[in-house]
Amino acid sequence: MSKQGGKAKPLKAPKVDKKEYDESDLAYLQKKKDEEKALKELKAKAQKGAIGGSGLKKSGKK
Predict the structure, then answer these.
(1) Would you say 29 and 21 are in contact if contact means Cβ atoms under 8 Å apart?
(2) Which residues does the annotated region (Disordered) include (predicted)?
(3) In the chain, which ranges are continuous DSSP H helix?
(4) Is residue 1 part of a domain?
């Protein structure tokens, strides 16, 4: 019989050393962030247009 009860504690992940980036890496990361930001803004504008637009109007008459 085992004396251990309940869940076993998960092992701790080793600490990750900070990465050192050179200028080209930093430029690439900045470009990527800018692209994501622009894409996010475009998505927000697209959603506003769809909600605020008149869309298809249906007539009550037959």
Answers:
(1) yes
(2) 1-26, 40-62
(3) 23-52
(4) no
Q: Is residue 13 part of a domain?
A: no
Residues in the chain: 62
Does any domain span residue 60?
no
Instruction: Flag whether 62 is in a domain.
Output: no
Q: Which are the contacts of 29, defined by CB distance < 8 A and separation ≥ 6? A: 21
Q: Which residue has the tokens 């930001």?
A: 37
pLDDT in tens, the chain (62 residues): 556 667 777 788 888 788 888 899 999 999 999 999 999 998 888 877 555 555 666 766 66
